[in-house]
Design a protein that fits this description.
By secondary structure, the chain is α+β, with helices and mostly antiparallel strands. The chain has three domains: 335 residues, LuxQ periplasmic domain, N-terminal subdomain (Beta-Lactamase, 2-Layer Sandwich), CATH 3.30.450.220; 85 residues, Helix Hairpins, CATH 1.10.287; 150 residues, Heat Shock Protein 90 (2-Layer Sandwich), CATH 3.30.565. It has 16 helices and 21 strands.
Length: 662
């Protein structure tokens, strides 16, 4: 029967799907990669620009402190004090004018002790006005020295000189993305200003000396920051780094250039930055449109001495270099990825032969099997999925031939499983009944013990009296002795039943655990069964805790007696105490070298009446009572054992230092 060849071959489908997957994966890889590369580069640029802004603040504050130091140094000179006391104002004027010119100050003015101007070095004719209401002067009159950026009104600038007022005057230049303002020009100026009191050697206030530098059209700070941080780097003929001092939202000192290549004085900050920095008082780091291009920028508010925002300090780097780097990286990635795809397609075409040819042979085999030839074998030798598939075909024919036999086997197996499941359910039912029995055993034991305790006591008393009155050579003496012994044993069993059924509440008192163990040992060490047992003690220093010492002594004696019997009165018993779990618990460890406990017995060790001892040598209540006592002390008792290697009982008690132990 001829094989029907599909219209679209498997090879073509594989290649088409491969191209589709590569295109989808490539698209998302390019999208995510582009964002990742760009965000990484921009994040690094933003981190750098924040660092650059810190450097700009350093230069800004350095200049402000320089003004402050000049004012303080000048005011402290004795020659100034002498001239002021002698009122030789012509000499004083020449002296202060020389200081102003030498240190590059725009203003240097002296007032009297009431804050009234007595001398202006820039405009000597204008004196007598009261400056005591100005914040810096007011603080200086109080003995404080301050330097701060200040907005100086046009009126005050005119007092110092028309040239300063002219420098401060700036026409607004229409700026893209700037917030709308009603004004068209700025009359006031932004000045780094400092003031200090002039006090002579007799602590007499002679006056106030103040001075400052007008920042409007003063490019010293911005150019110094640019030189210090960006070192005049350029990209395609444009300066990479820019620095600006804003008065409110107006550029008054900058090295940002406009379209004519001149300093962009009069342009304004974008509305977005205006809102974040001037209105909300927050630092702002992001890409921003600066005059005529996009920059990675950082802005911080400039505040006056009263904490009012009066301007902005800005640094920024041209964004284009980073975008070009990102584009080059992505283009390189695209070229590499495209080359890899072409190479993979060539390799895929040849690689599909190894896949397609075995599949064609398997198609023939399936048609033979479909016609009923269950003996047909698929001859494909490979150690991959195709080989496993061929082997599966061969196994399928074998399984079809053996179908009836397997159905019979499954019937038998199912029958067996039903039987096993029935046995499991029977065992679970028996275990449930046993649990119910144990739950009611305590009540039953209490009732039985109470009913037989009194008559049993009478039997024991009268049997003792009979034994005492019977001569030892009397033939009834051995029988009476056995009656006394077995009655005493019954009495002990009844006592154990009562202790298990009605455990006594612990009588809490401050107890030393180490001493309690030693008391238990002192009672037992004298017995003959302990003569060949070596006892090793490793006690830690423990705090005294509230516990019932007698009950704990009973627990320790039970464990020690069990250990001696497990060692058959010959071996080593190691006792260890220590603080555990961040000193919240005391751990008591009893380790013996006995014959150990069988695994199946470990699960029942603390059950009442369970014992591995011979009949008559144990009631099976000792460890059950011990378990109950430890639980009432809010502790735990565990056993670790290996047959032939010994057992370890681990008692853990909480450290209770308060008698209120509920």
């Amino acid at each position: 029967m001829p094989m029907n060849v599909p219209f679209v071959s498997l090879r073509k489908k594989i290649i088409i799907r491969f191209i589709f997957v590569i295109m989808i994966g490539g698209f998302f890889s390019l999208l995510l990669g582009s964002r990742l590369v760009r965000n990484t580069l921009i994040s690094q640029a933003q981190a750098k620009v924040r660092h650059d802004l810190a450097a700009a603040w350093m230069v800004f504050n350095e200049k402000q402190n320089q003004v402050k130091d000049i004012i303080i140094m000048t005011a402290a000179r004795e020659s100034l004090h002498e001239i002021m006391r002698s009122r030789q104002y012509d000499i004083l004027l020449r002296y202060l004018m020389r200081v102003r010119e030498e240190y590059g100050l725009d203003i240097l003015t002296l007032t009297d002790a009431q804050g009234r101007v007595i001398l202006r070095t820039r405009n000597p004719k204008k004196v007598g006005d009261d400056q005591s209401g100005e914040e810096l002067i007011r603080k200086a009159l109080q003995g404080e020295v301050h330097a701060s950026p200040q907005i100086i009104s046009r009126e005050e600038l005119l007092k110092e000189g028309d040239d300063l007022a002219e420098r401060a005057y700036i026409e607004f230049v229409p700026t893209l993305k700037a917030a709308a303002r009603e004004e068209s020009h700025e009359l006031n100026g932004l000045m780094l200003k400092a003031a200090t009191a002039v006090i002579d050697d007799r602590d007499q206030l002679l006056g106030i000396l103040y001075g400052g530098i007008l920042l409007n059209r003063n490019y010293e700070i911005v150019d110094r920051v640019k030189e210090l941080v960006y070192k005049d780097e350029q990209y395609k003929g444009r300066e990479i780094g820019t620095v600006t001092i804003f008065q409110n939202d107006l550029r008054i000192s900058t090295n940002v250039e406009n379209s004519q290549g001149k300093r962009a004085i009069g342009t304004r900050v974008s509305a977005e930055v205006n809102r974040a920095v001037l209105q909300n008082g927050e630092g702002w780091t992001d890409r921003a449109f600066v005059v005529n291009d996009w920059y990675i920028t950082a802005y911080d508010p400039i505040k006056d001495i009263a904490g009012q925002i009066i301007g902005i300090l800005y640094v920024g780097m041209l964004e284009k270099p980073y975008l070009d780097i990102s584009n080059r990286v992505m283009m390189t990635f695209i070229l590499i990825a495209g080359s890899c795809v072409v190479l993979l397609l060539v390799l895929l075409y040849f690689a599909t032969n190894r896949l397609i040819n075995p599949l064609l042979r398997m198609m023939v085999a399936t048609q033979e099997i479909a016609r009923g030839d269950l003996y047909h074998r698929v001859e494909v030798q490979s150690d991959d999925e195709i080989g496993y598939l061929a082997e599966s075909f061969n196994q399928m024919t074998d399984k079809l031939r053996a179908a009836n036999e397997k159905l019979l086997d499954w019937g038998k197996t199912l029958e067996k499983k039903v039987e096993e499941r029935t046995q499991e359910l029977t065992m679970m039912q028996a275990h449930l009944l046993q649990s119910e029995k144990l739950a009611s055993l305590g009540k039953l034991a209490a009732g039985i013990a109470h009913e037989i305790n009194n008559p049993l006591g009478g039997i024991l008393i009268y049997s003792h009296l009979l034994l005492e009155d019977t001569p030892k050579d009397d033939p009834h003496y051995p029988n009476l002795k056995k009656i006394v012994k077995e009655t005493s044993r019954c009495k002990d069993i009844v006592k154990g039943l009562l202790e298990f059924a009605r455990p006594k509440d612990p009588e809490m008192a401050l107890t030393d655990i180490n001493q309690t163990i030693d008391k238990a040992l002192s009672i037992l060490e004298g017995h003959s069964q302990f003569q060949n047992i070596q006892i090793i003690k490793k006690y830690s220093t423990l705090p005294r805790i509230f516990a019932d010492g007698d009950q704990l002594q009973q627990v320790f004696m039970n464990i020690i007696l069990n250990a001696s019997e497990a060692m058959e009165d010959n071996g080593t018993l190691s006792l260890r105490t220590e603080l555990v779990e961040e000193d919240k618990y005391i751990s008591v460890e009893f380790r013996d070298t006995g014959h150990g406990i069988e695994k199946e017995d470990l699960q029942r060790l603390f059950e009442p009446f369970f014992t591995t001892k011979e009949v008559g040598k144990g009631t099976g209540l000792g460890l059950a009572i011990s378990y109950s006592i430890i639980r009432k002390h809010r502790g735990t008792i565990k056993v670790v054992s290996a047959v032939g290697k010994g057992s370890t009982f681990l008692v853990k008690l909480p450290i209770i230092k308060d008698s209120d132990h509920e």
